[in-house]
C-alpha cells in the first residue's frame, strides 16, 4: 500500500485548475456516511442557500476514495479522516484542512463476530479483520494491535470498503472489522465491540474527521469556503445547545438516517460518541493541535510502511482563516 494514489492522478494535479467547471461557483462535495448534525443542513439545502451555488453531493465509502477524487479535480470539497488526510498531505497534494468535522469517539470501533471465539485481543491472532485501508479505522486498528503487542503480520488484515465489509460479514467470510456506520451498526447486531476509537484516543491514538478543500478552488472562491464552514458550525451549535431537544425532533433524526444509513435508534449514541467542535474551538484546533496530530499520524503510517516519508511541517495543509471569517 505504499502507492496510495495512482501516478496518473498525481499528474492530473498539474492541470487541477482545468478540472473545475466553467461555472466555477458551482462545485462538487464528497461526503461520507458519518452521523453528524450538519447532515440536517445538507438535507435542507442550507449549503446551497449560503454559498449561492449549485452543489453536486457525492457519497463516498472511504477517505482514500475521497482523496483520489479531490486529487483528480473532480471534487473541490471533501470529508476525510485524519489518516487519509495525513497520507495526502505527505504526498503534498494541493489540499487544505479548513474545518474539524468531528473528534471520533464511539462512532468507529473494532467488532468481533459472534461464534469466532474472539473474547480477548490475543484471540485476534490468525483471524481475518476487514477495514478500509488508509482510513481512520485502519489507523485505529493498527494502533490497537500495537497497544496489545500484537504483530499485524500475525492477523489477516483485508482491505474492504464498508459495503463489502457488510456483505463479507453476513457471509461469514471475516472474523472482525474496524469500521463506522452503517456497517458498524450491522456488525454490532451479531458481534462484540473490543475497543472504540474514543478509548484509543485516551490511549494516545486520537482520530478525527475533517473537511478539506482544493487550494486552487479556495483561492478563487474563499467566500464559498467561508459560507460552507459557517453552515456546518451553525448546525453544530444548534445541536450542542440542547442535544436532547435536537434529538426529540424526529425530522432531524430522519434526515440523519437518510444520509448516513444508520438506524434511528442508534443515532443518539453515535452523536454522543463524537465531539463536534464549535467555532471558538475550531480557531484553536486549526493550528498547532491539528498540525501535530497530522504529523503524529504520518509518523505512525511511515512506521507501518503506508507512506515513504514524513514532512518537516504540515502547517501548509491546515488553515483557520475560513472559520475566523
TrEMBL record:
Signal sequence range: 1-24
Keyword Signal: yes
Cellular compartments annotated: Periplasm
One Gene Ontology biological process: alkanesulfonate transmembrane transport
Keyword Signal assigned: yes
GO CC, alphabetical: periplasmic space
SMART domains linked: PBPb (SM00062)
Listed CDD domains: PBP2_taurine (cd13560)
One Pfam assignment: NMT1
InterPro entries named among the record's database cross-references: Peri-bd_TauA, Solute-binding_3/MltF_N, SsuA/THI5
Main location: periplasm
Domain Solute-binding protein family 3/N-terminal per the UniProt entry, residue ranges: 26-243
Keywords recorded for this protein, A-Z: Signal
SUPFAM superfamilies, A to Z: Periplasmic binding protein-like II (SSF53850)
Family: Belongs to the bacterial solute-binding protein SsuA/TauA family.
PANTHER family in alphabetical order: ALIPHATIC SULFONATES-BINDING PROTEIN-RELATED, TAURINE-BINDING PERIPLASMIC PROTEIN
Protein name: Taurine ABC transporter substrate-binding protein
Source organism per UniProt: Pseudomonas cavernicola
Name of the encoding gene: tauA
Amino acid at each position: 500500500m505504499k502507492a496510495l494514489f495512482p501516478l496518473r492522478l498525481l499528474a492530473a494535479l498539474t492541470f487541477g485548475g482545468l478540472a473545475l467547471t466553467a461555472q466555477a461557483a458551482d462545485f462538487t462535495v464528497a461526503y461520507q456516511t458519518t452521523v453528524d448534525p450538519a447532515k440536517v443542513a445538507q438535507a435542507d439545502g442550507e449549503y446551497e442557500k449560503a454559498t449561492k451555488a449549485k452543489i453536486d453531493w457525492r457519497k463516498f465509502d472511504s477517505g482514500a476514495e475521497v482523496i483520489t477524487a479531490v486529487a483528480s479535480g473532480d471534487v473541490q470539497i471533501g470529508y476525510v479522516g485524519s489518516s487519509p488526510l495525513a497520507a495526502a498531505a505527505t504526498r503534498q497534494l494541493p489540499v487544505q484542512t479548513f474545518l474539524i468535522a468531528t473528534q471520533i469517539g464511539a462512532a468507529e470501533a473494532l467488532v468481533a463476530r459472534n461464534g469466532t471465539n474472539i473474547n480477548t485481543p490475543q484471540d485476534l491472532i490468525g483471524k481475518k479483520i476487514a477495514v478500509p485501508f488508509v482510513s481512520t479505522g485502519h489507523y485505529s486498528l493498527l494502533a490497537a494491535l500495537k497497544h496489545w503487542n500484537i504483530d499485524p503480520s500475525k492477523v489477516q488484515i483485508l482491505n474492504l470498503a464498508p459495503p463489502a465489509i457488510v456483505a463479507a460479514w453476513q457471509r461469514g467470510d471475516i472474523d472482525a472489522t474496524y469500521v463506522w456506520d452503517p456497517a458498524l451498526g450491522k456488525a454490532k447486531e451479531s458481534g462484540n465491540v473490543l475497543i472504540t476509537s474514543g478509548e484509543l484516543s485516551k490511549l494516545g491514538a486520537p482520530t478525527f474527521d475533517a473537511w478539506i478543500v482544493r487550494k486552487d478552488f479556495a483561492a478563487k472562491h474563499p467566500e464559498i469556503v467561508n459560507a460552507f464552514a459557517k453552515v456546518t458550525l451553525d448546525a453544530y451549535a444548534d445541536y450542542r445547545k440542547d442535544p436532547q431537544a435536537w434529538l426529540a425532533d424526529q425530522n432531524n433524526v430522519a434526515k440523519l438516517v437518510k444520509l448516513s444509513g444508520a438506524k434511528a435508534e442508534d443515532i443518539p449514541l453515535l452523536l454522543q460518541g463524537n465531539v463536534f467542535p464549535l467555532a471558538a474551538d475550531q480557531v484553536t484546533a486549526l493550528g498547532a493541535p491539528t498540525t501535530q496530530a497530522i504529523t503524529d499520524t504520518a509518523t505512525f503510517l511511515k512506521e507501518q510502511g503506508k507512506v515513504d516519508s514524513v514532512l518537516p511541517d504540515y502547517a501548509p495543509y491546515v488553515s483557520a482563516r475560513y472559520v475566523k471569517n
